[in-house]
Amino acid sequence: MLVVYVSKAVLPILRQHGSGHIFQISSVGGRRGVPGLWAYQSAKWVLGGFSTVLAREVAPLGINVIVVEPGGMKTDSAGSSMKISQVSKPYESTVGYGRYASEEFRKGTIHIKQGCKHYYWVVE
């Protein structure tokens, strides 16, 4: 919800100027159905949907909404928070890292949306 509150706070200023940009940082995870990560990916899906609709609503006012959706990056920032502590027996074959990612996905992608246009880059 914070994204909604911040967007609502800046929109009057951008409307007054007649132009501007709102940048949203999301994740390609919102576009993938990775088993076991439903809460994270659902939140990212909502951010992408909100931003897409907002972009169409404010484009006639000269305001651009841009969503940056980076893919997986090789960092230590997630650390143990991204470890699955214990997978429930019935889901052992369907949940967990390494079971879902294509080579392209493992390299990481960035997807930027601006209005109805779509741009893709592969980040290595």
Characterization of the model:
With 124 residues, the chain is an alpha+beta fold. The chain has a single domain (2-74, 82-122), classed as Rossmann fold (3-Layer(aba) Sandwich). It is built from three helices and four strands, in the order H-E-H-E-H-E-E. The chain has helices at residues 2-17, 38-58, 103-107, and strands at 20-25, 63-70, 109-114, 117-122. Strands 1-2-3-4 form a four-stranded mixed sheet. Strand 1, helix 2 (38-58) and strand 2 (63-70) form a beta-alpha-beta unit. The longest helix has 21 residues, at 38-58. The two termini are 32 Å apart. GO terms for molecular function: oxidoreductase activity. Pfam families: adh_short. It comes from Aspergillus sergii. Keywords: Oxidoreductase. Belongs to the short-chain dehydrogenases/reductases (SDR) family.
Work out the strand percent.
15-25%
Structural class assignment: alpha+beta
Strand order of the largest sheet: 1-2-3-4
| CATH class label | Alpha Beta
Largest sheet: 4 strands, mixed
Mean pLDDT: 72
The rounded distance between the terminal residues' Cα atoms is 32 Å
Shape: elongated
**What Rg do the Cα atoms give?**
17 Å
CATH superfamily: NAD(P)-binding Rossmann-like Domain
- The helix content is 25-40%
- Would you give the CATH topology? Rossmann fold
Please identify, by name, the CATH architecture.
Answer: 3-Layer(aba) Sandwich
Low-pLDDT segments, ≥5 res: 109-124
Number of strands: 4
The count of helical stretches stands at: 3
